[in-house]
C-alpha cells in the first residue's frame, strides 16, 4: 500500500511539474499584455489627447456608412439643395449658443475647431460653384488658421505627420461665425420606399468688417463632411426651446430631423449658377425659392395613389366644402333679397308722399278753379239784377 501511495504522489508531482512552466508562462504573458495596455493608455493621456467625448472606430464607421452605402440604382429621384442658415433666426439659435464653453456644452463652431486642431477630422477647400471632397482638396489646418488670422500654438506631441494645435477659447472667433452653408441631398430610396433629406456638408461663414467699419463681408471658411462630424455631434446635447431648458436632443438629431431654417441660395443645375445669377430680381428669386420648396415638399405626396378610405374622406370633405359653399351662397342670396326688399320698401315709402302731394295739389287746384267759377257766376248774376 505504501508503495502504491508513493507512486501516486510521484505521478501527481511529475504532472504538476510538467504543467508548471506553461501556467507560469501564461501568467507572465497575461501580465505583460495588461501592462502594455496600461502603458499605452498612459501614453495617449500624456500626449494631451482631445478633451471632450471620445469616439471609437466602430462608432465612427457606423456614422460614416449611414446613408453612404446606397447606390444610384436604389435611388429613383435625387436633388441637391444649397441653403444658408442665418443664426439670427430663432430655429438656428442652438448653433450659436452658448458662445462660451459652459458645463461641457459647446456650440457647433467650437466643436469643429477643436476637432480640426486635434487632427480628428479633415477640412476641404471652399470652391465657389463646385465642391470636391477628395484628398487633393484637403486644407492644411496651419494654413487655415493663418488665412483667417486665428492665433494658435503647436500642441505637445505634435509632429509633421500628425500636426496638432492649441487654440485658446478667447481666440476662437465664434462671435464672428453668424451663418452656415449646408448641402442637402433630397432622395427617394426605393429599398424602403421612403423620402429622406440628408445633410452632406457644412461650411462656417465668417462675418468680418473692414478696418474702417462698414457692412460685414462674408468669408466662407471651409467645407466639413457631415458624416465625419456625426460621431461627435451625436454626443453633444442641446436644448432647442426656451420653454424647456432640458437638453433633450443632440446636434445629430437637430440636423437629421431638419429642425433648422434656411433659405435656398442654389440648386445643382447644368449651368452651375446660383439663384441670384439666374434671377437677378429679388422678387423673382423669392418666387423661385418658394416654388422649389413647394416641389420638394409635394414630391413624396405625388408618388402615391390614395386608397379607398382616403378617396372617401376626400369626397366627404369635398361635399362638406360644397355644402358649406352652397349654404354661404344661399345666405348671401337671402341677404341680397332682403336688401332688395328693404330698398324697394324704402323707394315705395319715398314715392307715396310724392303722390299724395300731387293729389293734394290737384285737389287744391280744382277747388280753387271751382271757387273762382262760382265767384264769377255770382258776380255775373249780381250785375244782371242791378241792371234790372
Count of extended strands: 12
> Uncertain regions: pLDDT < 50 for 5+ in a row?
21-50, 354-358, 373-388
Task: Tell me the fraction of residues in β-strands, as a range.
Answer: 15-25%
* Helical fraction: 40-55%
User: Alpha-carbon distance between the termini?
Assistant: 207 Å
Query: Number of helical segments?
Result: 9
SSE sequence, one letter per element: HHEHEEHEEEEEEHEEHEHHH
What Rg, in angstroms, do the CA atoms define? 45 Å
Number of self-contained structural domains: 2
By secondary-structure content and strand pairing, the structural class works out as: alpha+beta
Name the overall outline.
extended
Mean pLDDT metric:
78
The profile of the biggest β sheet is:
6 strands, antiparallel
Walk me through what this model shows:
- Helix 2 (about 55-65) packs across helix 5 (about 225-235).
- The longest helix is centred in the C-terminal third of the chain and has 80 residues, at about 310-385.
- The model is unreliable at about 20-50, about 355-360 and about 375-388 (pLDDT under 50).
- The chain has nine helices and twelve strands.
- Strand 6 (about 175-190) and strand 7 (about 195-210) form a beta hairpin.
- The protein has helices at about 1-45, 55-65, 110-115, 140-145, 225-235, 250-255, 275-280, 280-305, 310-385, and strands at about 75-85, 125, 140, 155, 165, 175-190, 195-210, 215-220, 225, 235-240, 250, 265.
- The chain has about 400 residues and is of the alpha+beta class.
- The chain starts with a helix and ends with a helix.
- It has two domains: about 55-305, no CATH class; about 305-335.
Amino acid at each position: 500500500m505504501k508503495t502504491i501511495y508513493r507512486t501516486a504522489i510521484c505521478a501527481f508531482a511529475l504532472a504538476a511539474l510538467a504543467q508548471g512552466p506553461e501556467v507560469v508562462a501564461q501568467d507572465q504573458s497575461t501580465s505583460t499584455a495588461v501592462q502594455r495596455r496600461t502603458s499605452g493608455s498612459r501614453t495617449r493621456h500624456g500626449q494631451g489627447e482631445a478633451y471632450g467625448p471620445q469616439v471609437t472606430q466602430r462608432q465612427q464607421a457606423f456614422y460614416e456608412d449611414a446613408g453612404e452605402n446606397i447606390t444610384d440604382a436604389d435611388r429613383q429621384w435625387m436633388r441637391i439643395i444649397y441653403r444658408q442658415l442665418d443664426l439670427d433666426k430663432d430655429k438656428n439659435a442652438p448653433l450659436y449658443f452658448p458662445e462660451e464653453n459652459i458645463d461641457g456644452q459647446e456650440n457647433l463652431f467650437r466643436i469643429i475647431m477643436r476637432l480640426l486642431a486635434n487632427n480628428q477630422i479633415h477640412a476641404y477647400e471652399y470652391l465657389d460653384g463646385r465642391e470636391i471632397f477628395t484628398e487633393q482638396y484637403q486644407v492644411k489646418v496651419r494654413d487655415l488658421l493663418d488665412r483667417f488670422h486665428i492665433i494658435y500654438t503647436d500642441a505637445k506631441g505634435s509632429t509633421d505627420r500628425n500636426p496638432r494645435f492649441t487654440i485658446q477659447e478667447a481666440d476662437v472667433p465664434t462671435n464672428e461665425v453668424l451663418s452656415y452653408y449646408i448641402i442637402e441631398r433630397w432622395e427617394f430610396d426605393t429599398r424602403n420606399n421612403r423620402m429622406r433629406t440628408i445633410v452632406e456638408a457644412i461650411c462656417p461663414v465668417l462675418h468680418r468688417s473692414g478696418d474702417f467699419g462698414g457692412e460685414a463681408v462674408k468669408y466662407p471658411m471651409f467645407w466639413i463632411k457631415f458624416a465625419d462630424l456625426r460621431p461627435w455631434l451625436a454626443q453633444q446635447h442641446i436644448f432647442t426651446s426656451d420653454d424647456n431648458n432640458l437638453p433633450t436632443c443632440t446636434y445629430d438629431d437637430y440636423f437629421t430631423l431638419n429642425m433648422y431654417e434656411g433659405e435656398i441660395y442654389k440648386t445643382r443645375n447644368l449651368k452651375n449658377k446660383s439663384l441670384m445669377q439666374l434671377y437677378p430680381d429679388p422678387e423673382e428669386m423669392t418666387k423661385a425659392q418658394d416654388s422649389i420648396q413647394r416641389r420638394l415638399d409635394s414630391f413624396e405626396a405625388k408618388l402615391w395613389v390614395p386608397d379607398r378610405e382616403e378617396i372617401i374622406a376626400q369626397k366627404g370633405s369635398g361635399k362638406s366644402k360644397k355644402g358649406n359653399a352652397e349654404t354661404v351662397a344661399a345666405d348671401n342670396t337671402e341677404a341680397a333679397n332682403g336688401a332688395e326688399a328693404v330698398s324697394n320698401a324704402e323707394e315705395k315709402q319715398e314715392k307715396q308722399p310724392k303722390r299724395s302731394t300731387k293729389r293734394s295739389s290737384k285737389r287744391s287746384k280744382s277747388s280753387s278753379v271751382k271757387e273762382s267759377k262760382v265767384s264769377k257766376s255770382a258776380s255775373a248774376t249780381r250785375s244782371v239784377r242791378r241792371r234790372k
